[in-house]
Amino acid sequence: MEILIAEPKGFCFxxxxxxxxxxxxxxxxxxxxxxxxxxxxxxxxxKLLEEKGVKMVNSIDEIQPGTVFVRAHGVSPEVFRxxxxxxxxxxxxxxxxxxxxxxxxxxxxxxxxxxxxxxGEKNHPEALGAQGYAPGSIIIGSVEEARALKEVPKIGAVxxxxxxxEAVDDIVAELYxxxxxxxxxxxxxxxxxxxxxxxxKVAEQVDLMIVVGGKNSGNTRRLAEVCSRxxxxxxxxxxxxxxxxWFEGMKKVGIxxxxxxxxxxxxxxxxxxxxxxGSSKKTSKKKSEK
Amino acid sequence: MEILIAEPKGFCFxxxxxxxxxxxxxxxxxxxxxxxxxxxxxxxxxKLLEEKGVKMVNSIDEIQPGTVFVRAHGVSPEVFRxxxxxxxxxxxxxxxxxxxxxxxxxxxxxxxxxxxxxxGEKNHPEALGAQGYAPGSIIIGSVEEARALKEVPKIGAVxxxxxxxEAVDDIVAELYxxxxxxxxxxxxxxxxxxxxxxxxKVAEQVDLMIVVGGKNSGNTRRLAEVCSRxxxxxxxxxxxxxxxxWFEGMKKVGIxxxxxxxxxxxxxxxxxxxxxxGSSKKTSKKKSEK
Lengths: 290, 290
Description:
Two copies of one chain form a homodimer. Chain A folds into three domains: 2-10 and 193-286, Cobalt-precorrin-4 Transmethylase, domain 1, CATH 3.40.1010.20; 13-96, 3-Layer(aba) Sandwich (Rossmann fold), CATH 3.40.50.11270; 98-188, 3-Layer(aba) Sandwich (Cobalt-precorrin-4 Transmethylase, domain 1), CATH 3.40.1010.20. In chain A, 39% of the residues lie in helices and 22% in strands. Chain A is built from ten helices and 13 strands. The first copy, chain A, has helices at residues 13-27, 43-51, 77-86, 97-111, 125-131, 143-147, 165-175, 190-205, 218-228, 263-276, and strands spanning 2-6, 33-36, 55-57, 66-70, 89-93, 115-119, 138-140, 152-159, 179-185, 208-212, 233-236, 252-257, 283-286. In chain A, the strands form three sheets. Chain A has a five-stranded parallel sheet, sandwiched between helices. In chain A, strands 3-2-4-5 form a four-stranded parallel sheet, sandwiched between helices. In chain A, helix 5 links the parallel strand 6 and strand 7 (138-140). The longest helix of chain A has 16 residues, at 190-205. The mean pLDDT of chain A is 91. The A-B interface holds A 165, 168-170, 172-174, 176-177, 179-187 and B 165, 168-170, 172-174, 176-177, 179-187.
């Protein structure tokens, strides 16, 4: 059985950077390290950090004196203010630089009098964070929602960095019917942009796709969706979920992993798949990114 | 036979305004009135003006001392400059105010460093005129052309005032893949925006559609296209083209007319259709605009 791996796979730039920042804080011996919200939508990575003594806190009230991390998704200025008001904490901002750009554009557009639209998932922390930078802004996740918007003179839009570019097309086309001026900052990050075409390409060449990543990770779920339109696809979080019968008669298996999937999980999955089949010959990487 | 008329029909604001300006100049006794390019894409209206002594000139070299009109479509600043250099002429600018807005946005976007895209017909005088206001701008008339664009940091787009909004959707969606920032000024005029839905609505209620207007008028051709997707449709320039056999067995006939179709032509067509059928009962107007 041949295994093809779609690249890029696993942690995107922003997630890797945020986890590296936490690891650094651990090494420096910082006390009582807390992360505001899950640092990455992956339960296994969270567990690994928790084992090292890092705490995930879900509300500002829970925060104790010590170090608190703002995760890669970012938070609204309101949340930042509240964190500062706690006074007793050292705040480390691990917001992804690409998310920062999204937030800044949202802010700038609101200041310039645009009705700001965050094209993103309604309850996604990144979209909610960006929304906080643009008073009166609206999160739009579907063409139907865009169609329901009332007409305004000027629409300014930013895009959640992890959305599939094709999913945004129809929303952008719809926005253009809603205002005389429509200004879109396409803030989808390069890594997301490349990950899906890479996964699709691998899916076309294999008999079965295994997509690895948190069930609560939006971008991983979309990878699985995209692949399932091409080939039979299983979305798993860990190697333990793999079933021998999936691989019966399969000659080529493809692997793709979301932006929040840690490398060690992907490695475990690859090793487990190899064991599913005695005749495993080779593992080839489809490099789409260097 | 019942006749339904789609409103708005005939001259749009800009065309009516330009012809009124010429009529006023005639009344004032201005000498040697010339129009640079056909003032309206309608041979019958042109003939009517020519009979009154107005000359259509197609090149700057042809212009003689007297009065010269810039038509509703507008011209590039380069053409304006050349007209002024002729020195011997009185220039009257009958550019449609909505086209002026399009030109001004094109200019502003170019000044602000955007790659300017004129979404419009490649050889349409309005698109060519607007192009002249934005150095380096490109006219894009199809999704394929948009797809072929190279990626740039910032795209700024304006839209030919007479394009069908739906035809522009896919181009806008494609542009958004070509730049980090896409800014679209939706300069389609209100009259165009309403004319097509009104024609569609009438087409849905009748057995046959008659679309009246110049064969060289882009917006009239698009009205005919839109109607022909719904019901059998004939695009005619004058009542003389009507054929009795088209109306055999027809109970309801719809009429729509382009933005360059003079009222007298539409009236003649309505009268001629009434004569096609002895049992003509009434003419109802589907008002979509007041």
